[in-house]
Amino acid sequence: MSAQAQMRAMLDQLMGTSRDGDTTRQRIKFSDDRVCKSHLLNCCPHDVLSGTRMDLGECLKVHDLALRADYEIASKEQDFFFELDAMDHLQSFIADCDRRTEVSKKRLAETQEEISAEVAAKAERVHELNEEIGKLLAKVEQLGAEGNVEESQKVMDEVEKARAKKREAEEVYRNSMPASSFQQQKLRVCEVCSAYLGLHDNDRRLADHFGGKLHLGFIEIREKLEELKRVVAEKQEKRNQERLKRREEREREEREKLRRSRSHSKNPKRSRSREHRRHRSRSMSRERKRRTRSKSREKRHRHRSRSSSRSRSRSHQRSRHSSRDRSRERSKRRSSKERFRDQDLASRDRDRSSRDRSPRDRDRKDKKRSYESTNGRSEDRRSSEEREAGEI
Question: Which residue stretches belong to region Disordered (predicted)?
Answer without folding.
Answer: 235-392
